[in-house]
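hey so u asked for the seq, here:
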Amino acid sequence: MQNIFELNNVIAVLLAYFIGSIPSAIWVSKWFFGVDVRDYGSNNAGATNTFRVIGRVAGFTVLFFDILKGWVSVKILTSLILYEPQSSEFINMQLVVGITAVLGHVFPIYEKFQGGKGVATLMGIILAINFSAAIGCVVIFLLIFIFTSYVSLGAIVAAIFFPIITIFIIRVESISVVYFSIFISILVILTHKPNIYRLLNKDENKMKIKLKKN
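ran it, structure tokens below
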């Protein structure tokens, strides 16, 4: 029986990586618009750059699928996990599967391990695991974005508030989820280091919907 547990866990993690690796921005930009989104704007294979260089339809399509990757990885793949739902073992595997999906997005096997920053996929995971905190982060992101037009700043501030909301407002009891919220906050900040430098130097691009090569 233990071997079945372990095999199912391995399968769930592997599938999460392959699902997370689906490069929505690259495939949408190439298949439907004849360009590689990485050749324009910030050169990033993510929803934000897709919005910027191709437009709203492509941007929302990529955003939807990137969020869906994280949500599906946690909600669907964890049906393979044989632990009791809401047990610490089950929650830990949800987190492992989710993080693996994000790593797939950042390092996609289909595109020579060159992907996006994983923020949208992270949001899908948080929606699946900690819905209330996810909504709080979305509200914070939107407020920052609306008043500044900086997507990166909205993502960074929302990431900083994620563990604060999880620990002090929602008061999540699972220590694994608490550690996860702190890990995610640090990860988002680290992946946005170039954006932070540009924000400090006032060189960061605001959201613009147009095709413009660097």
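The longest helix spans residues 56-75. The radius of gyration is 17 Å.
lmk if thats what u needed
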